[in-house]
Amino acid sequence: MTADTFLARHADGWHQAWAGLGAQPPAALLPRLCAAYAEPHRHYHTLQHLNECLTLLAEHCGQAAHPHEVALALWFHDAVYDVQAADNEARSADWARDALQAAGVAAAEAGRVHALVMVTCHGRPEAAPPMDADTRLLLDIDLAILGAPAGRYAEYERQIRAEYAHVPAAVFEPRRRQLMAGFLARTPLYRTAALRARREAQARINLAGALR
């Protein structure tokens, strides 16, 4: 997905999310974010993924207590992505919080956006947040790819492997199976009724196939 196509779909939503928090973003921030998602080492964590997340949010935003905060958390959740680093979520969350506070957003709202970005540390201790409505929705949206149609899911698996092309198969494959098995063991996998109805059954098919 090109930046122009992405912005044609989502630039209005970007400004609406900021306006919902009573602020205006710096003019340079949106181009910086788009450039980050277009970094050459990315294959899955790209504008395609962000587009899928924001599209799902638009369909389910009525489930959020603070939809503008969820939107901005999604915009920033993969803003920093270095496959050899362990602090991507923390750096992305810090970027979001600092940008919001610099634009005059209240510390409490900026802090909630920071916390929402941090819950995307899937499978790590810092990813055990209290399950309020916003957290459930954001996590389900971020993991919606697991329940994508088979063709898109297969593309996702190829994209993840490309991002970790530097990791030998003997190391990558056991770790990947462990992560997928962890997702498959969750009952339910999706925490919101709407995403569960739409994605749960296909996610279990996809994950079982991946493990085979």
TrEMBL record:
| InterPro entries per the UniProt record, alphabetical | HD_phosphohydro (IPR009218)
What top-level branch of life does the organism fall under? Bacteria
Q: What is this protein called?
A: N-methyl-D-aspartate receptor NMDAR2C subunit
State the organism named in the record: Pseudacidovorax intermedius
